[in-house]
Design goal:
643 residues; alpha+beta; 6-stranded antiparallel sheet; TolA/TonB C-terminal domain; globular; two-stranded antiparallel sheet; Serine Threonine Protein Phosphatase 5, Tetratricopeptide repeat
Length: 643
C-alpha cells in the first residue's frame, strides 16, 4: 500500500503537509481498497478523481503515478479501455523506477495492459505484456501470467501454450499453502489447452480430477465450478460421452432459465466465413462472455475452436458487437450474465443490404453536406451506442434529428419511446428542411413491426406526399416495400404496377432498386403463370442465376414449421430450455436447403431439433432460371420452451 501522508510528511510532496492531510490519507486508502475489491471500481474511480481535484497529485509525481495506475486498472475493469490504458502507461514508469516497493502494482498493471490488448484482438501485443509480467514474477506469482500466456497461445497449436500451462500446473501442485480449488482452477485452463490441441481423452481426465477437487457436482456453484463443468461438457462430447455431457451442463445451470432470455438479443450476428482468412464453415467455436446490465457485452473469451487463432479472434470479435435490451439483460441471473457460453459457427452469406439502404445513404450524405460529422457511436454495438444517441436526440438541431431518427428505429427501445422519437424526428425533419429520404426512412424502417395492412397503408400515405413522390430514390424504395409479400400476406393487387414504376424511375441502369424491382416482378409474373414475362424481367437484371441469390428482397415466411413434437426428449428429461439460430438457403419453390446451426444456447443441445424445424418451414416461391436458389444465407432463431 502506498501511504500518501507518509510521502507528504517526508517532504517528497515538496513542502509541509497541509492541514487536513490525514483525511486525504484516508481518502487515498479508501480509494485503493475499493480498487482492489470486486465490484467497487466505479467507487474507486470517483474517489481517485476527488483526490486529483484536490491538487495532491499535482504536487507529487509519485502520488500521481500511483493514482494513474490504480485508477487505470479500474477504468479498464469498467470498460473504459482507452482511458485506462492511457492512465496506466502514464503512471507505470514512475512506479517501475521504485523497484520492489511497487512490484505488485506494476505486475497487476502490466497484466491489465495485456487484457486491453486481448479485447482489441491484439494477441501478439497481449503476449508482450504477459511476458513482461512473467519476468517480474517468482514462485506462485508466475501462475497468473503463465495461465494468461497459455490462453492467448492455445489456438496456435504449436506446443507453446501447453508448456506454459504445464509450468503453471507444476507450480500450483508443488507450492505449499495452495488449496485444491487453486489446483482445479489451473488444471481447468491446462485441460482447455489440451482440448484445443485435440488431446480430448487427457483433457477429460484432467477435468474430472478438477471437478473432484472442487467437491463434485454440488448445487452451490462459483464461476470456477461453472467453468470446469462447462469444459467437461465439451470434453465429454469430444469423447462421445453424450449422457455425461448433458449431465455436466445441467449442473452449470445452462438452459434452465425461464423464457430463454439469451434468445432475445437484438443483434447477434456470427462472423462471416472466410476460409482464406482462417474462418472455415466447418469450424465450431464455444465463446464465453459477460453481459452488462445495460445489455452490452464486456469480457469475451474464446474457450474452444476447431480452427486456429484467426478463427478464435473472429468469433470473439463478433460476440463483442452483440446487444440485448437492458430489461432482457437484467432478467438473466447475475451469475449467468457474468459467464455465459454460446456455440458458434460462421455464416456463409453476410446480411443483405436493405432496400432502405439507398435512402439511408442519401440522408447521410445530406447530414455530411451540412457539416454534421460521423457520430462517436457510429461503429458501436447498439447497447453501447444507446446512451450517446439519447444525448444527441435531446437536442433540437441536426444532431438531434439524427439521434431521434436512430432511436425511432432502435430495437432496444420499447414501442412507446420509439413512437415519441419518431414524432420528434418527423417534426425536426420538417423544421430543418430535411430531404424526403428522412420521411421514407422513418416510415419504412420503423413501421415494420405492424401487420401488412397497416404497414402498407403507412407507406402509401408517405408516398402520396408530393416531395416524397418527386424524389426518385424515396419513391422507388416505398413502392418496393409496398409491393413485397409479407408474413402470411400476399403481394398487393397492384404489385406489378408499383414495380413497373420503379423500373421506369429516373435512376441509372443497374441501380440496386431497379434490379430488386425486376427480380420482384419476375416473382410476381411467375406466380401469375406468365413464365415468358418472368424470364424477360429476369434477363433485364443482367444477373446470372447464381448472382440473383445475393440481392433483392428476402422470401416471406409462409409456414414456420415448428410444433411441440419437435422438442427433443433428452432435453425435456434434463429440463433444458434454449434456442438455436439457424442459417439456410431457400429454393425457388420456397423450401429450405443446407440447414446448419450458427449459434446455440446451451451449446450442442438443440441443434438437431432446430434443423428439423427449419426443414419443415416454407417460404414464398421465387422465379429463378434453372431452379437456382431464391435466397442464400437466410437466418432464423428457433426458441425451445418446455412443452
Amino acid at each position: 500500500m502506498l501511504y500518501l501522508l507518509a510521502l507528504l510528511a517526508t517532504g517528497q510532496a515538496g513542502g509541509t503537509p497541509p492541514a487536513g492531510a490525514a483525511s486525504l490519507q484516508q481518502q487515498f486508502d479508501a480509494a485503493s481498497d475499493a480498487s482492489a475489491s470486486p465490484g467497487r471500481c466505479e467507487e474507486a474511480i470517483a474517489a481517485f478523481e476527488a483526490i486529483e481535484r484536490s491538487g495532491a497529485a499535482k504536487r507529487n509525481a509519485l502520488v500521481a503515478a500511483a493514482i494513474d495506475v490504480r485508477k487505470g486498472r479500474c477504468l479498464v475493469t469498467v470498460g473504459r479501455d482507452a482511458e485506462g490504458e492511457a492512465a496506466i502507461r502514464r503512471g507505470l514508469p514512475q512506479l517501475q523506477a521504485r523497484g520492489a516497493t511497487f512490484a505488485s502494482d506494476v505486475r497487476d498493471a502490466i497484466v491489465m495492459l495485456g487484457e486491453v490488448a486481448i479485447r482489441r484482438s491484439d494477441y501478439d501485443g497481449a503476449l508482450v505484456e504477459y511476458r513482461r509480467a512473467l519476468e517480474l514474477s517468482a514462485g506462485p506469482q508466475r501462475i497468473l501470467p503463465l495461465m494468461l500466456m497459455a490462453q492467448a497461445l492455445m489456438f496456435d497449436h504449436d506446443g507453446q501454450a501447453l508448456r506454459y500451462a504445464e509450468e503453471a500446473r507444476t507450480i500450483v501442485t508443488t507450492s505449499p499453502g495452495l488449496s485444491p480449488r487453486d489446483v482445479a482452477r489451473v488444471q481447468t485452463i491446462y485441460a482447455r489447452v489440451l482440448l484445443n490441441e485435440g488431446r480430448d481423452k487427457e483433457a477429460y481426465a484432467v477435468l474430472r480430477d478438477s471437478l473432484a477437487k472442487q467437491g463434485g457436482l454440488g448445487l452451490k456453484v462459483t464461476l470456477d465450478d461453472i467453468a470446469t463443468r462447462s469444459d467437461l461438457a465439451i470434453a465429454a462430447l469430444r469423447n462421445n460421452d453424450v449422457v455425461n455431457a448433458r449431465r455436466y451442463l445441467v449442473y452449470t445451470g445452462a438452459g434452465r432459465m425461464k423464457d430463454a432470455p439469451f434468445a432475445t438479443a437484438v443483434d447477434m450476428e456470427p462472423p462471416a466465413c472466410d476460409p482464406a482468412g482462417g474462418v472455415r464453415p466447418e469450424d465450431i467455436a464455444v465463446v464465453e462472455f459477460t453481459l452488462g446490465n445495460d445489455g452490452h457485452v464486456t469480457d469475451v473469451t474464446p474457450i474452444f475452436t476447431t480452427g486456429g487463432r484467426a478463427s478464435a479472434i473472429a468469433f470473439a470479435q463478433a460476440v463483442r458487437d452483440w446487444s440485448w435490451k437492458p430489461e432482457s439483460a437484467r432478467a438473466i441471473p447475475l451469475i449467468y450474465r457474468a459467464s455465459t457460453r454460446i456455440e458458434l459457427r460462421c455464416i456463409r452469406a453476410a446480411e443483405r443490404p436493405s432496400i432502405f439502404g439507398p435512402v439511408a445513404d442519401a440522408l447521410s450524405a445530406w447530414f455530411d453536406s451540412r457539416g454534421v460529422g460521423s457520430p462517436a457511436w457510429a461503429d458501436m454495438p447498439d447497447a453501447r451506442a444507446l446512451p450517446m444517441q439519447r444525448i444527441d436526440a435531446a437536442r433540437d438541431d441536426l444532431v438531434g434529428l439524427r439521434g431521434a431518427i436512430m432511436l425511432s428505429m432502435s430495437p432496444l427501445l420499447d414501442e412507446k419511446e420509439r413512437d415519441v422519437m419518431r414524432a420528434k424526428a418527423r417534426a425536426l425533419a420538417t423544421t430543418l428542411n430535411a430531404p424526403p429520404a428522412a420521411q421514407a426512412l422513418l416510415t419504412g424502417r420503423d413501421m415494420k413491426k405492424y401487420d401488412a395492412t397497416k404497414y402498407r397503408a403507412a407507406l402509401r400515405a408517405t408516398l402520396a406526399e408530393p416531395a416524397v413522390a418527386a424524389d426518385a430514390v424515396s419513391a422507388a424504395t416505398l413502392r418496393l416495400a409496398i409491393a413485397a409479400p409479407r408474413f402470411k400476406a400476399s403481394a398487393p393487387p397492384d404489385a406489378v404496377q408499383l414495380l413497373d414504376a420503379v423500373i421506369a424511375a429516373p435512376l441509372q441502369a443497374g441501380h440496386p432498386l431497379k434490379v430488386a424491382a425486376l427480380l420482384q416482378k419476375a416473382d410476381a409474373l411467375a406466380r401469375l403463370r406468365d413464365v415468358a414475362g418472368a424470364q424477360a424481367a429476369f434477363r433485364q437484371t443482367g444477373l446470372t442465376a447464381e448472382q440473383c441469390a445475393l440481392i433483392g428482397l428476402e422470401p416471406a415466411v409462409r409456414r414456420t414449421g415448428g410444433g411441440s413434437s419437435d422438442y427433443p426428449d433428452a432435453a425435456a428429461r434434463f429440463g433444458f430450455e434454449g434456442w438455436v439460430r439457424a442459417e439456410f438457403d431457400v429454393t425457388a419453390d420456397g423450401r429450405t436447403a443446407t440447414q446448419r446451426a450458427v449459434a446455440a444456447y446451451p451449446p450442442f443441445i438443440f441443434n438437431d431439433a432446430a434443423m428439423g424445424v427449419v426443414r419443415d418451414a416454407r417460404f414464398t416461391s421465387s422465379f429463378r432460371p434453372e431452379g437456382a436458389l431464391a435466397c442464400s444465407g437466410q437466418q432464423q432463431s428457433i426458441v425451445f420452451h418446455m412443452p
